[in-house]
Write a structure and sequence with these properties.
By secondary structure, the chain is mostly beta strands. The protein has 1 helix and 8 strands, in the order ββββαββββ. Strands 1-3-4-6-5 form a 5-stranded mixed barrel.
Length: 159
């Protein structure tokens, strides 16, 4: 039997990132991602959002606090974690996504991040912008000088 606890979310940040430091000086930030959910009932079709609490540590937290703000579209990969603490009215249970990797999909704020994307994945130990300013703005520019391919359905082995 294989157990797997993996989550991938794409949504908008609901507020600006606030970076905190632990007693051991590790960076941490809690944030909420609004993820669209489509629904269809007999009366109507529509869309609503789920608000997912997330937490990022160390370099991922530093990256988010530097480049992301309210409204930024992010992709979060991580795992679901449930924890509890003693609150004023008894034990409080919290379920959240602990981010292993965070990517900025779209940043509308113009705060120094490249216009399209950037990411930080702690396991790589490097920050790698997905779009370099030296590259063309669209994929179409990369193939504008190549001739069109003439492929028929007979050429496809799985058609």
């Amino acid at each position: 039997m294989i157990n797997l606890n993996r989550v991938v979310l794409v949504g908008r940040l609901t507020k600006d990132i606030e970076l905190r430091k632990t007693n051991s000086n590790a960076s941490v930030c809690s944030f909420t991602v609004a993820v669209d959910r489509r629904f269809q009932s007999q009366q109507q079709a529509g869309q609503t959002a789920d608000f997912i609490n997330c937490i990022a540590w160390r370099q991922s937290a530093d990256f988010l606090s530097s480049y992301a703000s309210k409204g930024t579209i992010v992709s979060v990969e991580g795992r679901i974690q449930t924890r509890s603490y003693d609150g004023q009215n008894g034990k409080v249970y919290v379920t959240e996504v602990v981010a292993d990797s965070v990517q900025i999909i779209s940043n509308r704020t113009g705060n120094g991040m490249p216009a399209s994307t950037g990411s930080y994945a702690p396991q790589n130990q490097t920050f790698t912008p997905a779009a370099d300013p030296g590259y063309p703005d669209s994929m179409d520019d990369d193939f504008s000088n190549t001739p069109a391919l003439d492929i028929s359905s007979d050429d496809l082995p799985f058609y």
